[in-house]
Amino acid sequence: MTSVPPYHKIRRIAIMKGHQVGYTEGILMNFLGYTISHQPGPSMIVGPSEKNIKKIVQQKLEPMINDTPVVRGKISHFSRTTSRNTIIHKDFPGGFLVMCGANVAADLAGTSVKYLLIDEVDRFPVDTQGEGSPVELAIGRTAAYNRRKIIMGSTPTYEESSVIAKWFEEGDQRYYFVPCPHCKHEQRLLMDNLVFDKNNIDAGVTYKCEKCGELIKESSKTMMLEAGIWKPTKEEHISETFRSYHLNALYSPIGFLSWIDVAKAKMKAERDEAYAKTFQNLYLGIPCTQAADEFPSANALYKTGGKYEEGKIPTLGGVTPKFLLAGVDVQGDRLEVLITAWHRKICFVVEHIVLWGNTNVDPHESPWLELTDVLKSKYGDYGITKLAIDSGFIPYRVFSWKRSVVDHHKRIQVIRGVWDMDGIISYPKIMEVSVYSGKKSRVGNKYQDVNTHFLKNEIYKRLLIESDEVTDTHIFFPKGKDREFYEQLCSERMVLPDAHDPMDRTGRIRYRWKAVRERNEILDLMVYNFAMWYGCNAAKYAHTDDKWSRFVEIKSFTG
Description:
Layout: E1 12-17, H1 23-37, E2 42-47, H2 50-67, H3 69-78, E3 89-92, E4 95-101, H4 105-109, E5 115-119, H5 134-140, E6 149-154, H6 163-170, E7 174-179, E8 186-187, E9 194-195, E10 206-208, E11 215-217, H7 221-227, E12 229-232, E13 242-247, H8 259-271, H9 273-284, H10 298-304, E14 323-330, E15 334-343, E16 346-356, H11 368-376, E17 378-379, E18 382-390, H12 395-404, E19 412-418, E20 429-430, E21 433-434, E22 440-441, E23 446-451, H13 452-463, E24 475-476, H14 483-489, E25 492-495, E26 512-515, H15 521-535, H16 545-555
Parallel strand pairs: 1-6, 1-13, 2-4, 2-5, 5-6, 7-13, 14-18, 16-24, 18-19, 19-23
Antiparallel strand pairs: 3-4, 7-8, 7-12, 9-10, 10-11, 14-15, 15-16, 17-18, 20-23, 21-22, 25-26
Helix pairs in contact: 1-2, 1-3, 2-3, 8-9, 10-14, 13-15, 14-15
């Protein structure tokens, strides 16, 4: 990119990218090498944290310095006259390089610099120790220099809070056009034009030219990248000192990320909806959204009604589900149970049961005794494979009940809802539980966290499907469910947090689920069922009937 050198008139550059496209080496390290040796000045690199910065120094900066004689000579010569050369501070004739994390306000506010390099800005905290945006703090350090240079790059995260996406949109939105080796037509590299055998990706991946239709081998990529050209796509952009660029993972240089790697990631994203957001960020280089554009209507679901009798395994469209799951919500005066049956990704609500009674009692008393009967019950030839029960209300009683069901305790999974976590369901953890003696008990108290944010999004997307035909992501309901059932199912909305608490513990703005009515047990129960579907690794086998049949044969409980 000709606009990168410090002598160019462009003063601000934003690069929204996929990962492994050579940004750190190709842009940041080359820029630093040039400025240190030819056009020195006060410089700063800012990363998400000091730990991240030290990693860049050890893996990228130090090798660049050691492998470049002219740069090594500048820094090593000057080090004899100063003791300021450390891991995160380098002095050289005419300037210095300071490296700091965005989470330390003092580092950002203490130095005036001419050259500012910002790495992975979307991983920055929104506020740095109460002093405001770390991006604005860092940019403020360049105010004393008219011919300053600011280069910002990052893989994007969520579009609602993405800094790099906003900078990209403000710029002239340049994309890289490469020539076809066959017809010389200049085009952007797009994921939809990858050609490969889904059953044997390792056999090779090619790219189909959008004009001539010829297949391009990846071995031609180096030539294509060398002959490519950046083209702005935003006509109304008027700034002469600001440019923005985008690169997806298909542009990754030979030796970094191959088209085979990208194709495998694409296939995984099609199978795994949780991974789809990761693919969007890291490979497409575009932000994903946290918020649902629409929310299901309880009234519409109630009017549509159910398709089959409650309490029996249905058969719809030739599909008979045989994999049964259950979720249990614990309240002070009752236990609520929702039983679902699954055929691949299709969910059928089988029965909603309310077991009334004081739940703060011995597991051999009602209603815990009735819950044991539900666990042992069968629908046709099949029983409940996995039952998820929330630990939130009275954990001691929940774990006591699980231990009391001696012959079936492995079918019971105690869970805890967490609104912000990596993945869908965590590895087993141990919970300290208070008992009547006042002591903490940890014996056998295993539980798993579940990602309620993702699961509620998943449920709501399915509830918005309006087709009467059986789709592979449908949720079906039995006849006779009242309006309250559907009101509880649609009882939450995703909203921005309150103004006084705009960030989570990592310092990032995150949407939160907010109840729009007092009762929401049905939605919670549905979340528990979906958590068990993912927890049983059903998603891995839900793509073909053959794989699913083998999965059901192994996993389903027939008692």
